[in-house]
Fold this sequence. Notes:
alpha/beta; Rossmann fold; 4-stranded parallel sheet; about 50% helix; globular; binds iron/sulfur cluster
Amino acid sequence: MSKELVKKFMEIRVENVIRLKEMKEKGGKIVGYYCTFFPQELALAAGAVPVGLCGTKEEPIAAAEETLPRNLCALIKSSYGFAVTDKCPFFNFSDLIVGETTCDGKKKMFEFMGEFKPVHVMQLPYMKESKAALDLWVEELRRLRSRLESELDVTISDEAIWQAIDVINRESVAAKALCDLNQQEPPALSGMDLLTVIWSRGFNIDKEEIIEMLNELRENLGSGGDVAAGQPRVLITGCPIGLGSEKVVQLVEDVGGTVVALENCTGYKILPLQTDTSFDDPVVALAHKYLQIPCSCMTPNTGRIKLLTSMAADFKADVIIDLTWQACHTYNMESREIAKLAKRIGLPFLQLETDYSASDMENLKVRIEAILEMVEK
Ligand code: SF4
Ligand code: SF4
């Protein structure tokens, strides 16, 4: 039964292209975004559907390289390639694209995208502990609220934002509870199924429906899934991963390990964060939440170390693998801190620097096999 339910998640992306098309034809509005820092709540409060657009496939990269420098990370090139070739229906349907000043490649990509699509870029402060950072981020969320209102021709009430906050808080709780089932031995879901579920859920246009699907799968898996016991338990961290760029997750499981958790922002990173509803102003409440995301573009990014430390213990990790997409400087440099953490807590550690192509599969496989052999089971 749980396999059937996972299959339903696998079908979300294709099914929701049709639903979005029908919605568009009836005048519905869509907001496309590329990063976890985008507060989906504001799009929902505007009556629009937020859709994640991060490119996770190699296919459009060659087209992107006609414009972009080749030595950019695969995620940026794939995202831009899908946009410029008009091959992503989610991008095509979007009324507005929202980006943030996260890494250098991404923020310059948004300038290029602005040549053929309405784009709004939020200025993300990097030193989140300062008062100035919070003030700036609050103002940036207010500026986004105004842009959504003018672009989509709506008024966003505080009440609508609080309602959207409630929905996203519940969705995060449901997704986290499902991921947390993998703390057991054997884990409830294989890494590939976990990735399929957590990544695909973002394409569902109906948040209440996806909460129900997540809860149904969790209840179904309550008594255990079909993952074999005794396999080395791998915690993956680093750059975002989605279906199409899952090669490291797949390789771990091909050589006898099991990915019990993905700390990446397309996985667990944001799930423990809840918007605090005790604030008077919902925009201030959202600013506090989103500024806590432990992404490597923050400095210092101590939140990632803290999160990984608790995840390694909670998910009983035997190994940490840090995935860096080539040319992602922030994650690449931060890998040194992850290596130190792994040493401190006594876990074997492996950093893999790669791209979306299959050209280095054999090499990756050998390195993953070697690190899993260090685990005594
Ligand atoms: S890794 Fe950081 S910059 Fe990249 S999508 Fe995630 S939160 Fe955004
Ligand atoms: S993986 Fe790194 S370089 Fe690529 S978009 Fe994310 S933060 Fe930027």
